[in-house]
């Protein structure tokens, strides 16, 4: 399908709605963790270990901010530093099992907080949401794979 004004508008609306939904869910859960914490853990879980600067870029924070964030995540045992096999002077950051568990718990809390808002969906509406999630997931997975290949990780 070529780009159309309707496609562009729908994608923009989807991004805005997703951000609003995520912010609402985070408020409802009462989580005190920074969104950057969850974004960082999610990036590490999805993409795998990476250097601090690359992680900062993926998480959309400055390198000094990421340094502080990683220090806190290491203290919480949610991430670990591992030797970079391509450069003995450098480290990569990797999510730990404890970090993956914390991320899954947070995601479960988010979805549980939203259930009351969507409990009255019809079967067709729920199927449409599931289809949307699958479409978006497949496109994002393709984009992640392409980015990894371009970066030499694929």
Describe this structure in words.
The chain has 154 residues and is mainly α. The protein has a domain of 107 residues: Winged helix-like DNA-binding domain superfamily/Winged helix DNA-binding domain (Arc Repressor Mutant, subunit A). The chain has 6 helices and 2 strands; from the N terminus they run ααααββαα. The relative contact order is 0.10.
- Count of DSSP strands: 2
Radius of gyration: 18 Å
CATH topology of the domain at 8-114: Arc Repressor Mutant, subunit A
Shape by Cα distribution: globular
- What share of the residues lie within helices? over 70%
Main-sheet strand order equals: 1-2
Q: In what range is the share of β-strand residues? A: 5-15%
Organism: Leifsonia soli
Protein name: DNA-binding MarR family transcriptional regulator
Domain HTH marR-type: 4-138
Keywords: DNA-binding
Give a quick summary of the entry:
By secondary structure, this protein is mainly α.
Structural descriptors:
154 residues, mainly alpha, globular, WH_DNA-bd_sf, DNA-binding transcription factor activity, Arc Repressor Mutant, subunit A, HTH-type_Bedaq_tolerance, 6 helices
List the helices and strands and how they pair.
Blueprint: H1 5-29, H2 35-47, H3 52-59, H4 63-75, E1 79-83, E2 91-95, H5 97-118, H6 123-150
Antiparallel strand pairs: 1-2
